[in-house]
């Protein structure tokens, strides 16, 4: 029975409304993620970054859309830093180096479409 409760808790978006900000929480000194959709065609993942945490510079073979839900982040794309706030979104182009650094605790939705 516990497994069914857990599975039900992990699928709150199926055929119902949910508040994305509430589906992933902050943990001091950590990055927390939760995959919402994982298909061959792409993924949608929620992230919660503790202040000061980040992802070092890397590239991805697909475009990725970052939509900030809470807090502030510096996203650097090909050496150009962008200060991104709640409600704002940035496309990180495929094959361009990018990095993220949490200026405050921040949450984002990362959407990657494979094509």
Automatic annotation (TrEMBL):
Q: Describe the location of the Cupin type-2 domain by residue ranges.
A: 46-113
UniProt xrefs under Pfam families: Cupin_2 (PF07883)
* InterPro entries recorded: Cupin_2, RmlC-like_jellyroll, RmlC_Cupin_sf
Q: Report what the protein is called.
A: Cupin domain protein
Naturally occurring in which organism (per UniProt): Neomoorella stamsii
């Amino acid at each position: 029975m516990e497994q069914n409760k857990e599975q039900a808790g992990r699928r709150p978006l199926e055929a119902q409304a949910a508040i994305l900000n509430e589906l992933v929480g902050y943990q001091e000194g950590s990055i927390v993620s939760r995959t919402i959709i994982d298909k061959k065609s792409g993924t949608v993942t929620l992230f919660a970054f503790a202040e000061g945490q980040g992802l070092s510079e890397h590239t991805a073979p697909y475009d990725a859309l970052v939509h900030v839900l809470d807090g502030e982040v510096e996203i650097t794309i090909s050496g150009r830093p962008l200060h991104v706030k709640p409600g704002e979104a940035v496309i990180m182009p495929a094959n361009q180096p990018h990095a993220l650094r949490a200026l405050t605790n921040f949450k984002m939705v990362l959407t990657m479409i494979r094509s």
